[in-house]
Design a protein that fits this description.
Layout: E1 6-10, H1 15-31, E2 34-40, H2 48-51, H3 54-67, E3 80-85, H4 91-101, E4 106-110, H5 115-121, H6 124-131, E5 136-139, E6 158-162, H7 167-183, E7 186-193, E8 202-204, H8 213-224, H9 229-232, E9 235-241, H10 244-254, E10 259-264, H11 278-285, E11 290-294
Parallel strand pairs: 1-2, 1-4, 2-3, 4-5, 6-7, 6-10, 7-9, 10-11
Antiparallel strand pairs: 5-11, 8-9
Helix pairs in contact: 4-6, 10-11
Length: 303
């Protein structure tokens, strides 16, 4: 099981940000982790008198107000604290710096989904996902929910892991498997081929035969899983052909996936990535929350 001791939830203290906070609280309770709420302000830096005065107390009250719906739920012994950063010119960088400083194990944040601006400039969520020192769980408006609105209970039924046989996708798989094991969710392990190896549009490993690319890839997928996975969950092994992000999104909608887990190679930027990586495109259109592990993530220890 993945070890999670500290969770960071950036918030602008709005109702929309509180939707990500709901997931952060649920996961903090599940992992008995400390929750750090981070609010970044573009205002001027405060002097010591102001830091200890009215404004700081007001921010503290707002944090408490955001957390109020969850404070009386079972498992209320989880710890939380609030942090306010002032004079922040780049919110994404501020989140990344705080995640590294606080040795955060998981970032949970909200994406507002502004696809036109994000295509050219990238969003804060995309920047954080590419460069974070830990996995990032991104929630969106109008998505498939798996944390109860009033109860805060986690109801995770189907987890999709998009695997490209890289180290960062393996890390995303480990985190997804940990959640799936905790909640007895069905695991869908998927790889997308760029070109067809056979006329068959899709092939599950259990029925694979012959020497085509689908069969070879399905067997590789099978070998990436810990052997004990089959003891505690239903497992679906899927190979598809096409554009990676399109196949992931289509499959997630078809199968009513609750969580997509995938990896990203980090912050390398080239001309052919102008319209965004596969991860960026999935983040902008996913029908459910997305967990992203980057090549910049530090390793995780098993418990």
């Amino acid at each position: 099981m993945i070890k999670v001791e500290r969770i960071l939830c950036p918030t602008d203290l709005s109702t929309e940000s509180d939707e990500a906070l709901r997931y952060a609280v649920a996961l903090a309770r599940a992992y008995e982790a400390e929750l750090l709420l981070l609010h970044c302000s573009e205002g001027p830096p405060l002097d010591e008198e102001e830091k200890n005065g009215k404004l700081n107390r007001q921010i503290s009250r707002l944090f408490t107000a955001s957390l109020a719906p969850y404070l009386g739920l079972p498992g209320e012994d989880w710890k939380w604290r609030g942090l306010v950063l002032n004079d922040v010119s780049d919110i994404g960088k501020a989140i990344l710096l705080e995640a590294a400083t606080q040795e955060i194990d998981l970032i949970v944040m909200r994406s507002r989904r502004r696809p036109r601006a994000a295509v050219l400039l990238g969003s804060t969520a995309e920047t954080v996902c590419r460069n974070a020192p830990c996995p990032v769980l991104v929630t969106h408006p109008r998505e498939r929910e798996w944390v109860g609105m009033s109860t805060g209970e986690i109801d995770l039924n189907r987890v999709l892991v998009a695997h490209d046989f890289s180290r960062h996708s393996a890390m995303a798989m480990n985190f997804g498997l940990s959640l799936a094991q905790e909640y007895q969710a069905e695991v869908h392990l998927m790889h997308v081929l760029a070109t067809a190896g056979h006329e068959e549009p899709e092939l599950a490993w259990s029925s694979a035969s012959g020497g085509n690319a689908y069969t070879f890839t399905a067997r590789q997928l099978q070998q990436t899983l810990p052997k004990e996975v089959h003891l505690w969950c239903n497992f679906v092994n899927v190979v598809r052909c096409g554009k990676v992000y399109e196949e992931i999104l289509t499959y997630a909608r078809e199968q009513k996936i609750d969580l997509i887990c995938m990896g990203t190679g980090g912050s390398n930027w080239t001309v052919d990535k102008l319209l965004g990586s596969n991860v960026d495109r999935v983040l902008r259109q996913a029908p459910c929350p997305v967990l992203v592990a980057s090549s910049t993530n530090r390793g995780y220890s098993d418990s």
